[in-house]
Amino acid sequence: MERKLFIEDDVLALVQYTKDDDMDLYNCRLDMETQRAFNTKIPKEHNMLEQFPFAQSVWKNPFAAVILEKENNKIIGAVIFSPPPYDDDNCLAIYIYNPYRKMGYGARAFYLGAKYCLEEIGVEVVGSSCYENNVASQKMHDKLGFKRLEDKDSHEICDFTGEPIIQHEYYVTKSMLRKPL
Q1: Is 103 among the domain residues?
Q2: Helix, strand, coil % over all residues of the chain, rounded to 5
Q3: Is residue 137 part of a domain?
Q4: Closest CA to 89 of 126, 135, 43
Q5: Is residue 34 part of a domain?
Q6: Could you report the per-residue pLDDT of 111-148, keeping only the tens digit for each?
C-alpha cells in the first residue's frame, strides 16, 4: 500500500498512519516504559486490541503519521497531532517503539511533526506535554525550542506510585522551533 508522505529529512519520513498500524501502536502502549511516560497504567483486562479504543481510533485523527526509518524501511514509531475537538490544545505526541529508543529518532521525528503542523496544517502554536519524571522528553522539548507553560501544568496522581505528579505543558511556534541536529 502506498502511504501519503507528510514530511521527511535525510533519515526519517513521516508517512500516513493507517488502521494496519494499530497493532504496533497498541503494543507500544502496553510497554511499561510507555505507560510510565504517559502516566497511564493499562488494566490487565485490556489485553486485546479490540478492547483498547485508543489504538483503534488513532488513524481517524486529522494528522497521524508513522515514523519510517528510511535506510532500513522500518516503521519505528508514530507521531500524532490532536487539535480541538480531539484535545483541548493543539497537542503533539510521539511514540518510539522498542528497540529504537534512545537513538535520536524521537527528537528528529518530533521536530518534523511540529514543523508539518506549523507549516502545512497552518496552526500558530503546537502544544505538548510530559511528566516531571520524564527527563528525556523534557530535554527533547528544550532542544527543539519548546517553552514551558508552568501556569498550565497539571497536578495529577501517578498511576504507578499513588503520589502527586506534575505534567509539564509546553508550546512552540514556527519562529521558536529549532532543528535538533
Answers
A1: yes
A2: 35, 30, 40
A3: yes
A4: 126
A5: yes
A6: 999 999 999 998 999 999 999 999 999 999 999 999 99
* Side chain identity, residue 63: F
CA 79 from centre of chain: 5
Q: Which helix (H) or strand (E) holds 12?
A: strand 12-16
Range of the domain at 11: 5-172
Confirm whether 177 is domain-assigned: no
Q: Domains in the chain: how many in total?
A: 1
Of the candidate ranges 30-44, 92-106, 157-171, the one whose mean pLDDT is the lowest: 30-44
| CATH at residue 16 | 3.40.630.30
Please write the tens of the pLDDT for every residue from 37-82. Answer: 888 887 766 666 665 555 556 766 778 999 999 999 999 999 999 8
Q: Please name every residue paired with 131 in a beta bridge, in sequence order, or none if there are none.
A: 167
If residue 147 lies in a helix (H) or strand (E), which one and from where to where?
A: strand 147-148
